[in-house]
Amino acid sequence: MKLYFAPGVCSLSPHICLREAGLSVELVKVDIKAHTLDDGTDYLKVNPNGYVPLLELDNGERLTEGPAIVQYIADLNPAARLAPAAGTVERAKLQSWLGFIGTEIHKGYSPIFNPAANAEFKAWQKQRLIDRYTWIAAQLEGKQYVMGEAFTVADAYLFTTLGWMGFVGLDVAQWPILQAYRERVASRPRVQEAMRAEGLIK
Ligand SMILES: N[C@@H](CCC(=O)N[C@@H](CS)C(=O)NCC(=O)O)C(=O)O
Fold first, then answer.
1. d(CA 13, CA 39)
2. pLDDT value at position 113?
3. How far away, in angstroms, is 51 Cα from ligand 1 center?
4. Average pLDDT, whole number, for the chain?
5. What whole-number distance in Å separates Cα of residue 63 and Cα of residue 128?
6. Sign for the pseudo-dihedral over CA of 3, 182, 136, 153
7. In the chain, what are the domains?
8. Model-level pTM?
9. Whose C-alpha in 36, 43, 75, 121 is 20 to 30 A from the C-alpha of 144?
10. Tens-place pLDDT, residues 129-150
């Protein structure tokens, strides 16, 4: 398999999941501004939408959309217990988390990074992110991970978004529960491996 990624962006989530699942993968770095690969290949020929993550399977099939990719990875190795079994209400709860993180958090950052958005809208969007993280912090009360005691693919995604806070003037220390959660996830050996491979830590 090949994972098309860019350092520190949302593709870190499936990258972490692949390592947590013990699966080997070839990492292909994408310049997401120029939409090119290191060898000059036009990434738009790989993903016409231009974004990462994209997982290319050994048979050449290509999968996009982070929440779908991470569930596919989890199902490749159920023994790693990165997601509850498909068809259970617990799996639906995991999907609910992935949907929340994707639409309320991940895509909540995009307008703040967008030079075309005006200051008023950016401030509104930032407050919305604060409200959403405050809600997440309340859900984490008494839990190690978002689904309870076990790390799942939703944690890989949420953790990835926590790494962007500094870019929009948010400080995770505002939410002690989130700060402790971030440290908990960051201390996982496979998470450190992924971050090191992306050049995010030494
Ligand atoms: N709908 C996609 C969005 C992925 C996405 O927003 N990727 C960003 C990085 S976090 C990206 O590659 N942006 C570059 C671009 O859109 O050209 C998903 O959920 O996987």
1. 24
2. 87
3. 4
4. 97
5. 30
6. positive
7. 2-81+190-197 (3.40.30.10), 89-188 (1.20.1050.10)
8. 0.98
9. 75
10. 999 999 999 999 999 999 999 9
CB of 65 within 6 A of ligand 1: the answer is: yes
CA distance 67 to 69: 6
CB 50 near ligand 1, within 6 Å: yes
* Digit-coded pLDDT (tens) for 52-93: 999 999 999 999 999 999 999 999 999 999 999 999 999 999
Contact present, 200 and 8 (Cβ < 8 Å)? yes
Over 90: is that where the pLDDT of 95 sits? yes
Q: Sign (positive/negative) of CA torsion 184, 188, 194, 200?
A: positive
For residue 149, report the distance from its CA to the centre of ligand 1, in Å.
29
Query: Separation of 10 CA from ligand 1 center, angstroms?
Result: 7
- The token pair at 46 is 């790989």
Q: 130, exposed or middle or buried, with CB in 10 Å at 0-12, 13-18, 19+?
A: middle
